[in-house]
């Protein structure tokens, strides 16, 4: 197949039986009937897996994201082990920002740390627009993965402007996002200039992944829940909309996710999502009431529940499958990422249980 025929236009019509576009995951994102409820886990590629810890032992995080053969192997690990319905590209939300010229590192046990935080108009200018040439390793890894994965869809992702801005303005992880909010409330013009630039970088990064062949994209606005709905609409929604609506004709479903977003679910759907991610605080039927019946939902299992005895896990899986029926499409997932201390066997059992319970129901019509 030539590069041209693997582009978005070709994939748009590519729902041949058995291909990734006809997979249960993509069908659920598009609110079409599925043979079973699809399941994957945010942060499935990572520290809960011994095979991941082994392969990463001597390679720093950011470097591992820049080695296509490592990205491919780590992305495939949870697919092999758990039989999940989708793979998610192994990367990080700060990878495109680093490619855009921001000096940063991912510090083990801490997260992204920025050498010189972005707090002035001149700082914003240091964030360059990016093209595929700035992230060749992502392009290459996605192309390899699409071949290796066959019918299993690959999810591409990026960080949303607010969550990226928080790391860049704070200089690292923050509980209160105080410096970020001080800039947002104190200099609205600079705030929008920063988020315009981040939306541009994010959109370009997602387009590279889509051109290379991912079947869906997820926009992580992990920390958007720190804002009221009014502030979200004023300071954040226009920028996340620029990203998601910018992909309206890209031919792949768009998932929009955040934590603590009970009050924001409707607005997050409005940004241009096909699927809205829901954390553990809002049951999926309640979430659907807020998001509207034209969007699919994903999430809701508290990652901490996976640390509890199996009967507790099983009861939660049953509850979420039941409440997910209120939505026109349901992708089973956690309400946030897999915790490093999670027993991988439990994840494998959850996948099997979701498949068993939901296919039994599909059989019964
Ligand atoms: C906020 C955020 C980040 N990165 C990401 C988000 C949004 C999702 C979320 O809210 O959790 C997204 C992300 N980061 C990573 C992935 C890989 C794909 C997946 O399996 O989901 C994804 C989708 C790998 C990673 N990204 C990181 C790791 C850990 C690196 C290691 O192995 O040491 C992995 C596997 C590092 C990272 N990078 C970031 C944090 C907070 C951390 C953890 C710091 C720590 O506790 O060590 C920023």
UniProtKB/TrEMBL annotation:
One of its GO terms (molecular function) is uroporphyrinogen decarboxylase activity. Catalyzes the decarboxylation of four acetate groups of uroporphyrinogen-III to yield coproporphyrinogen-III. PROSITE patterns: UROD_1, UROD_2. Transmembrane segments: none annotated. This is Uroporphyrinogen decarboxylase. Pathway: Porphyrin-containing compound metabolism; protoporphyrin-IX biosynthesis; coproporphyrinogen-III from 5-aminolevulinate: step 4/4. Substrate binds at residues 43-47, 92, 167, 222, 336. It comes from Micromonospora tarensis. Gene3D superfamilies: 3.20.20.210. Homodimer. It catalyses: uroporphyrinogen III + 4 H(+) = coproporphyrinogen III + 4 CO2.
């Amino acid at each position: 197949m030539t590069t041209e025929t693997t582009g978005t236009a070709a994939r748009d019509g590519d729902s041949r039986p058995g291909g990734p576009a006809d997979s249960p995951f993509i069908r659920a994102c598009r609110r079409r009937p599925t043979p079973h409820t699809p399941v994957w886990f945010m942060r499935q590629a990572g520290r809960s897996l011994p095979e991941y810890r082994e392969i990463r032992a001597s390679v720093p995080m950011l470097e591992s994201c820049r080695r296509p053969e490592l990205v491919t192997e780590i992305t495939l690990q949870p697919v092999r082990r758990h039989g999940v319905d989708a793979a998610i590209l192994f990367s990080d939300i700060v990878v495109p920002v680093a490619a855009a010229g921001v000096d940063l590192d991912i510090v083990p046990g801490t997260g992204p740390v920025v050498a010189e935080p972005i707090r002035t108009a001149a700082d914003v200018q240091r964030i360059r627009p990016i093209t595929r040439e700035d992230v060749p390793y992502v392009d290459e890894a996605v192309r390899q993965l699409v071949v290796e994965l066959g019918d299993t869809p690959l999810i591409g992702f990026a960080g949303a402007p607010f969550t990226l801005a928080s790391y860049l303005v704070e200089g690292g992880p923050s509980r209160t996002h105080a410096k970020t909010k001080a800039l947002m409330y104190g200099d609205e013009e600079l705030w929008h200039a920063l988020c315009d630039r981040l939306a541009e970088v994010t959109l370009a990064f997602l387009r590279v992944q889509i051109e290379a062949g991912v079947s869906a994209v997820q926009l992580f606005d992990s920390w958007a829940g720190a804002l009221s709905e009014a502030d979200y609409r004023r300071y954040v929604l226009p920028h996340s909309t620029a990203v998601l609506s910018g992909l309206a004709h890209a031919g792949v479903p768009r998932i929009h996710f955040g934590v603590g977003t009970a009050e924001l679910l409707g607005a997050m759907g409005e940004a241009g999502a096909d699927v809205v991610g829901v954390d553990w605080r809002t049951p999926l039927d309640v979430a659907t009431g807020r998001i509207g019946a034209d969007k699919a939902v994903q999430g809701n299992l508290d990652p901490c529940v996976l640390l509890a005895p199996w009967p507790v896990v099983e009861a939660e899986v049953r509850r979420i499958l039941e409440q997910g029926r209120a939505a026109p499409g349901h992708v089973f997932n956690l309400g946030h990422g897999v915790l490093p201390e999670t027993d991988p066997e439990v994840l494998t059992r959850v996948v099997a249980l979701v498949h068993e319970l939901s296919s039994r129901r599909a059989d019964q019509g």
